[in-house]
Amino acid sequence: MAAFSGSVLIYIGLALYLATVVYSIFKFARRTITRRNLRRDLSQQYQCQPIQTKFPHKDPILGLDLFISNARAAWQHQFLETVNRRHDEIGETYQLNMLGTVGIMTRDPEIIKTVLSTHFKDYSLDAERKKALKPLLGNGIFATDGQVWAHSRAVLRPQFTRAQLMDLSMLEKHVGRLIDLVPHNGEEIELQELMLRFTMDMATDFLFGESTDGLLAGREGPYGQGTLQGFAESVQYAQHRMAMHVALGWWALLKPDLQFRHHVRVVHDFIDGFVQKELREHRPGVKHKTYVLLQALVEDVKDPMQIRDELVNILIAGRDTTASLISNVFFVLSRRPDIWRKLREEVRQHFEGKLPRFDQIPQCKYVRYTINESLRLFPPVPVNSRVAVCDTVISRGGGADGHAPVLITQGTPIVYNISGLHRREDVYGADAEEFKPERWEALRVGWQFLPFSGGPRVCIGQQFAITEASYVLIRFLQTFESVECVDETPWQEKISLTVSSLNGVRVRFRRAL
Ligand code: HEM
Ligand SMILES: *[C@@H]1O[C@H](CO)[C@@H](O)[C@H](O)[C@H]1NC(C)=O
Ligand SMILES: *[C@@H]1O[C@H](CO)[C@@H](O)[C@H](O)[C@H]1NC(C)=O
């Protein structure tokens, strides 16, 4: 009897199990069919057509040929060039296989606008980017999506829309130190490394009210003096590691890195120290002599972790990008004495040797044209991507002529190529490859010019970066008679989280008498 009831129980159990399995399969099938129907409806509603333009893969399953070709191009520092050439040969928008994931590559402003703005909610940051940035950037603005991102943005945005964001006296202090390190007599100097130190000193001063003071250490000196000793090196280290992770995806994990955690901790501990001190000593409503973001943030945010996360996010988002912009401007000017002379004349007329005031900076039109032209040809963030979080549609790229909408299924990555966009001859003319500030006299651009991205996630530091870069340029123009290049090699990319010049910026300055 006991044996009988035991086997009955087993049969009942088995039957229940089978029923569950059948039900799961049924549910899965129904979901698949429903999803397929929804996709079909969406596709019909928008009259989508398949993308016919495809990367001519030799390996259509994993796309290893493209991976190897990209790796080789990156190795030879021709990644960007290779990709652009591909657009000219293949088309503005094409499908490609990225190690088994089928994605879209585009330099079409319509599609970029759809992804970044009109259908903003249908896309998120690349999961690998979030994973790579998380250890250092935590829940800050630059590494999150959705509600968490929206909250960060709401907290930070008002700070950056103040009429006069930055203190020019703070800027002048650091620019003065920078100029002191530049030889007057035509001796060679590598400017890009100095600019990275300059933007680190400036950013830490602006964010924490304490500077790394790397420029005080002399021309060959180490980063990080005084209270922030060791901070800059740890930022550098962590950033390098994150860039590898972003570039290689999970492949980067094949080479474990035990020091990474240590450097992340160093960076966090420094900032936590400043945050604790500010939370302790902060007196509401008391105006400080110079604007410091930390002091402004503690008025609105009480969670020390969130304050730290936002500060480190802004440091990472703003520092290398701005250094890259200023360096690239000098890279070009050292080869273009004609532009240098014209800039010098403009600056002489505006300031007559006096320090620029905040409201005067935008009046220097030719300075602004030059900076825009540098951002056009050498955007510090030249390629970026998003992933569809639901089934959605892009308005172009499908059909034989590439003009029909395309269905984008959930999980599809869309890579958009800003440097490709900025060199389109149909937008910028046949001389698109030429550095020509004058083109900005008449140029009106929208989604064709996106150095700071666009839509709800547009860079919040655009004004800050433009002011900083303009100020440095103006002060150099006031101080030096000429700049010439030492190394004639054309600009080559160095890819990290942002893109800078591979060979640095080797130049000679001569001081005005
Ligand atoms: C020339 C200098 C700069 C360039 C080219 C640049 C470019 C960009 C780009 C392309 C994005 C969008 C990234 C994406 O959505 O995937 C971005 C976002 C951002 N930038 Fe900048 N940036 C520069 C300077 C700065 C500065 C100086 C700051 C702050 C002081 C800053 C703070 C930010 C922040 C916080 C975000 C994230 C915004 C968000 O996701 O809502 N940037 N920047
Ligand atoms: C982006 O386009 C530019 C210019 O068309 C090209 O040189 C570059 O290789 C492209 N980058 C990528 C990643 O496709
Ligand atoms: C430079 O580019 C910005 C977009 O970043 C644009 O708003 C501005 O009008 C441009 N400046 C000039 C002088 O065309």
UniProtKB/TrEMBL annotation:
Annotated heme binding sites: C459
Presence of keyword Membrane: yes
Names of required cofactors: heme
Single GO term (MF): oxidoreductase activity, acting on paired donors, with incorporation or reduction of molecular oxygen, reduced flavin or flavoprotein as one donor, and incorporation of one atom of oxygen
Pfam family, one: p450
Transmembrane segments: 6-26
The UniProt record lists the keyword Repeat: no
Alphabetic keyword roster: Heme, Iron, Membrane, Metal-binding, Monooxygenase, Oxidoreductase, Transmembrane, Transmembrane helix
PANTHER family listed in its UniProt record: P450, PUTATIVE (EUROFUNG)-RELATED
Family designation: Belongs to the cytochrome P450 family.
Protein name: Cytochrome P450
Organism this protein belongs to: Coniochaeta ligniaria NRRL 30616
Lineage, opening ranks: Eukaryota, Fungi, Dikarya, Ascomycota, Pezizomycotina
